[in-house]
Amino acid sequence: MAHRAPSGRAPAAAPAPSRRLARRVLVLFTLSLSCSYLCYSLLCCCGGPAAPRARCAPARSAAAAKKLLQKSRPCGRPPPAEPPGSAAPARRPREPPAPPARSPPGPARSPPGPARPGAKRLPQAIVVGVKKGGTRAVLEFIRVHPDVRALGTEPHFFDRNYDRGLEWYRSLMPRTLDSQITVEKTPSYFVTKEAPRRIFNMSRDTKLIVVVRNPVTRAISDYTQTLSKKPDIPTFEGLSFRNRSLGLVDTSWNAIRIGMYAVHLESWLQYFPLSQIHFVSGEKLITDPAGEMGKVQDFLGIKRVITDKHFYFNKTKGFPCLKKSESSSLPRCLGKSKGRTHVQIDPEVIEQLRDFYRPYNIKFYETVGQDFRWE
């Protein structure tokens, strides 16, 4: 028979095993959750591959990411503010080097040659006359001087080519240094009416050289040169006179008109003082070339370098020649047209022409202050 407990007392109950198990599970779950949170925090802040950084902080450049790896801080927390003036300047990313400079597109240029010394200048001195007076000899002789550069050809700028302009004229000149003088020769300038004004307009300081010769001898030489080119021209007598019996000289013939030096000189003196015009004796240029060239050098303001040692007299030509150099005995004479034999002229014709030129010669002597002794 079953026995019942007394009615006033309840029996003592032992602790249930299920409650202890629940507590253990709760502790383990809490530890597991804490460990997960700790791992998550470490992976987020240290940049592990399993935790993308985009969730913790905004995207940064590679340089900023490297800086974050060096300085660890809690995720999502802004960096501590630094006192003013203590922060180092932010580093800028290095820029790639600039590419080498390129020359502008264009045709390939060949390497420049050696620069030529000096410059082309307008002439400071001009041999303006006269034809068949000895102008070529003066030019060749003065070119020996190291301080002179001369144009070899006759440019005829101030009488035939003036419309081409001064730059064209300058382009013809040889290159000269600052210490050198540029010289050109065109004998027809002396009898060109416009030449004095045109040269003055170029430079009022231009020095003028005029080589003069006995006008009768000069006219015969002029005729001889023309006859060698045109053998069918009239005789010298026929061209010189309008009426020989009356002694009327034809001044329209160029060979006669050139020798009227006093007439042509008047035009030049309207623009240039006599001190800027040097007259060379064509006769003394043959008998005493060194003496005449010494005066030319003085007029140009250069040292007397050309002396007797530079000349050799050619008996065949009857004309002085230049020595090529002191070490060579071979002379350098003027061209074949220089020193040619003159045609024979009737002595009475020569005397008539002397009478014609006499008053012009005397006036010329008085004007230039020099007696050339053509009488």
Layout of helices and strands:
Layout: H1 17-46, H2 62-70, E1 119-120, E2 125-129, H3 135-142, E3 148-150, H4 166-172, E4 175-176, E5 181-185, H5 195-202, E6 207-212, H6 215-229, H7 236-240, E7 241-243, E8 248-249, H8 254-257, H9 261-269, E9 277-281, H10 282-287, H11 289-300, E10 311-314, E11 319-323, E12 331-332, H12 347-368
Parallel strand pairs: 2-5, 2-6, 3-5, 6-9
Antiparallel strand pairs: 1-4, 7-8, 10-11, 11-12
Helix pairs in contact: 9-12
Task: Describe the fold and architecture.
By secondary structure, the chain is α/β, with parallel strands linked by helices. Helix content is 36%, strand content 12%. The strands form four sheets. A five-stranded parallel β-sheet has the order 3-5-2-6-9. A hairpin with a 4-residue loop joins strand 10 (311-314) and strand 11. Helix 9 (261-269) runs parallel beside helix 12 (347-368). It is rod-shaped and about 175 Å long.
Briefly say what this structure is:
It is built from twelve helices and twelve strands. With about 375 residues, the chain is α/β, with parallel strands linked by helices. Strands 3-5-2-6-9 form a five-stranded parallel beta sheet. Strands 10-11-12 form a three-stranded antiparallel beta sheet. A two-stranded antiparallel ribbon has the order 1-4.
Taken as a percent bin, the fraction of beta residues is: 5-15%
Shape: rod-shaped
H-E string:
HHEEHEHEEHEHHEEHHEHHEEEH
In round numbers, the mean pLDDT is 81
Tally of separate helices: 12
SS class = alpha/beta
Percentage of residues assigned to helices: 25-40%
Main sheet specs: 5 strands, parallel
Spatial order of strands in the largest sheet:
3-5-2-6-9
Tally of DSSP β-strands:
12
End-to-end span in angstroms?
199 Å
- Any idea what the radius of gyration is? 55 Å
Low-confidence stretches: 1-15, 45-69, 71-93, 95-110
